[in-house]
């Protein structure tokens, strides 16, 4: 056992050799994991292994009964416990146990605040708010002062399509959540019971409201919901609030606490961890080569929190950690666990996208791109301790700002695992093609991330029967989105839009559709169809891309119009006059109501040259189609109920 004579030691880490004689089994995980934690493993094909098993209870009992010993926190992932004792005989006895690997000091005696702030955040307040961009009336939330830190990522797009964190759980690891139960930014989460639980790993109690305010401010960047003043990035998410950090000092025990809190996040069924903590050097007698981390150790696999963070990711949790505020210091680089290879490390920029000078540099010592991405950490809008809305600086705030948006993005694509979401965020970064050591892949655009994930998610197929192609596809959408169906015939070199279809629903979700294409004067050969999804139809934020291309083979030319069978309830349809010099009157007699009647006029190349929509009531109905601007020739007038072809009529334009 290591002894430090220069500073009184009372807290130690006891590491065990194994989990022998353990009463818990891998085959019965409900004894130590919540149903939601088990469901996460099942959803992403994650095996339950020995790291999931609790530490052998008799080992813990033996340590506790060795003398005057208090068990502090237990880590099953690392198979170790932290203890407090001044009993030298007890320590000697613990070291003699055959199942103990080693025992080492991990923290000095707890005293009054030493003045060392364990949280790597710049505590100075910004002098003024950044220039304000006004959000549009179409946005679901009125963000007020926080619009810039949401909009820099197009985060309002996620909220506008119904992704606001519902049914997602975030565990926040920090130094305390001072007075969150009484501050206005948290009115909604408190009223709606969105805080599911709390635990203080430092004081070993449930209350976290009387401790440091840093975690509260980080929490506010995600959870705030004050219309017109301050709205966070995932205000509908649920939360566990865990205090793992003692802000008055910096000792290795806090790294152990971090891992214990991450384990609690996993066991409770959390989807994400948002951590604004990091470690490189320690206080007092622990500030030496034995305990301080070197840059060489920032390789994602060496430090206790990096190992714990990667284990959390292995269990299916998306881990978001602030990169650190060492950019102006001699250390300069990221701090652990931001170096974890499965951790989304977040650097800091201003709301205008400029790199914050305090933001830690990458890469990790093993050459990983770090930080992975960047978010607003300079002049970030946060909840103040005086129940005011203020700003603060640090990657401590860029991390949770990004974590909230990652939560909403993942909410829309739960089919994919944590690492797929991290990759999507990286690839949507502003400098994804040329990442650097300040902001990694850049500032993510979550709208681009949605589009890229949709392209991977969407499927389509087509079948051809009697000159009629049925195209089926599955994607995700809301009513404000739409699809365009394009076709390329054997004698054509370019695609032509033949139809479009609106999305459905108010919350972004899976949707499946069909479209029937009746071929007219088509030659034998390969016919290609492609689906273009427009996820933002606004002129200022327009975004669309092609989801998929499918082909069918036409063996015999389609030289005649294939008429569908009579549709029950449609009634008699007449097109008059025919031929006509430009005005065609369509008369429907004695039919049912068709609230979304779509009428297409199609030329001999199969192109839709005119489209009209009608809300047809029950009974007789007459309306006109004007084709005076069209060239003379043969056309097809097709009537659809949504995408279902009702009937087609050949007409001649003189």
Give your account of this protein's structure:
By secondary structure, this protein is an alpha+beta fold. The protein has 4 domains: 9-108, Peptidase S8 propeptide/proteinase inhibitor I9 (Alpha-Beta Plaits), CATH 3.30.70.80; 147-452, Rossmann fold, CATH 3.40.50.200; 458-554, Immunoglobulin-like; 572-653, Macroglobulin (MG2) domain (Immunoglobulin-like). The chain is built from 12 helices and 29 strands. A 7-stranded parallel beta sheet has the order 6-9-5-10-11-12-13, with helices on both faces. Strands 2-3-1-4 form a 4-stranded antiparallel beta sheet, sandwiched between helices. Helix 7 (214-223) runs parallel beside helix 10 (395-412), helix 8 runs parallel beside helix 9 and helix 11 (418-427) crosses helix 12.
């Amino acid at each position: 056992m290591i002894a430090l004579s220069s500073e009184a030691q009372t807290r130690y880490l006891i590491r065990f050799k194994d989990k022998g004689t353990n009463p818990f089994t891998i085959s019965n995980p409900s004894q130590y994991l919540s149903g939601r934690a088990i469901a996460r493993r099942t959803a992403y094909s994650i095996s339950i292994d020995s790291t999931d098993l609790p530490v052998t209870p008799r080992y813990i009992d033996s340590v506790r009964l060795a003398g005057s010993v208090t068990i502090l926190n237990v880590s099953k992932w690392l198979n170790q416990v932290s203890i407090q004792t001044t009993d030298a005989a007890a320590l000697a006895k613990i070291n003699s146990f055959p199942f103990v690997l080693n025992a080492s000091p991990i923290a000095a005696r707890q005293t009054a605040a030493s003045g060392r702030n364990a949280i790597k955040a710049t505590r100075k307040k910004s002098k003024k708010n950044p220039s304000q961009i006004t959000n549009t009336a179409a946005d679901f939330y009125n963000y007020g002062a926080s619009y810039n830190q949401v909009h820099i990522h197009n985060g309002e797009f996620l909220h506008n399509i119904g992704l606001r964190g519902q049914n997602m759980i975030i565990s926040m690891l920090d130094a305390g959540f001072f007075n969150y139960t009484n501050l206005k930014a948290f009115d909604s989460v408190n009223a709606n019971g969105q805080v599911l639980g709390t635990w203080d790993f430092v004081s070993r109690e449930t209350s976290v409201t009387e401790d440091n305010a840093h975690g509260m401010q980080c929490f506010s960047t995600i959870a705030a919901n004050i219309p017109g003043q301050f709205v966070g990035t995932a205000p509908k998410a649920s939360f566990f609030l865990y205090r793992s950090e003692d802000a008055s000092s910096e000792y290795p025990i806090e790294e152990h606490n971090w891992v214990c809190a991450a384990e609690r996040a996993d066991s409770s069924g959390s989807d994400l961890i948002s951590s604004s903590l990091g470690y490189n050097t320690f206080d007092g007698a622990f500030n030496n080569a034995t305990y301080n981390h070197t840059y060489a150790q920032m390789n994602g696999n060496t430090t206790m929190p990096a190992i714990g963070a990667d284990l959390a990711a292995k269990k299916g949790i998306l881990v978001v950690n602030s990169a650190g505020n060492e950019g102006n210091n001699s250390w300069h680089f990221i701090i652990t666990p931001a170096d974890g290879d499965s951790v989304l490390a977040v650097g800091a920029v201003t709301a205008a996208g400029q790199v914050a000078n305090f933001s830690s540099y990458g890469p990790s010592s093993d050459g990983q791109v770090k930080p992975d991405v960047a978010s607003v950490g300079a002049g970030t809008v946060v909840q103040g301790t005086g129940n005011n809305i203020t700003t603060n600086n640090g990657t401590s705030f860029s991390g949770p700002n990004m974590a909230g948006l990652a939560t909403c993005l993942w909410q829309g694509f739960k089919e994919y695992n944590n690492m797929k979401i991290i990759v999507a965020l990286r690839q949507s970064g502003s400098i994804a093609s040329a990442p650097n050591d300040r902001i990694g892949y850049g500032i993510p655009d979550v709208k681009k991330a949605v589009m890229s994930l949709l392209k991977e998610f969407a499927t389509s197929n087509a079948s051809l029967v009697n000159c009629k192609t049925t195209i089926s596809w599955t994607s995700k959408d809301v009513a404000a989105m739409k699809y365009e169906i394009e076709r390329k015939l054997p004698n054509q070199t370019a695609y032509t839009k033949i139809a479009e279809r609106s999305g459905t629903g108010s919350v972004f979700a899976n949707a499946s559709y069909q479209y029937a294409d009746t071929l007219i004067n088509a030659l034998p050969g390969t016919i290609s169809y492609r689906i273009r999804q427009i996820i933002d139809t606004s002129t200022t934020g327009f975004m669309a891309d092609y989801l998929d291309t499918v082909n069918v083979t036409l063996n015999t030319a389609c030289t005649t119009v294939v008429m569908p069978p009579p549709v029950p309830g449609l009634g008699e349809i007449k097109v008059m006059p025919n031929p006509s010099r430009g005005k065609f009157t369509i008369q429907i007699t004695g039919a049912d109501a068709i609230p979304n009647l779509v009428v297409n006029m199609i030329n001999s190349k199969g192109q839709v040259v005119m489209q009209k929509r009608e809300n047809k009531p029950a009974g007789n109905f007459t309306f006109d189609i004007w084709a005076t601007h069209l060239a003379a020739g043969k056309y097809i007038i097709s009537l659809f109920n949504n995408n279902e072809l009702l009937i087609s009529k050949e007409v001649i334009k003189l």
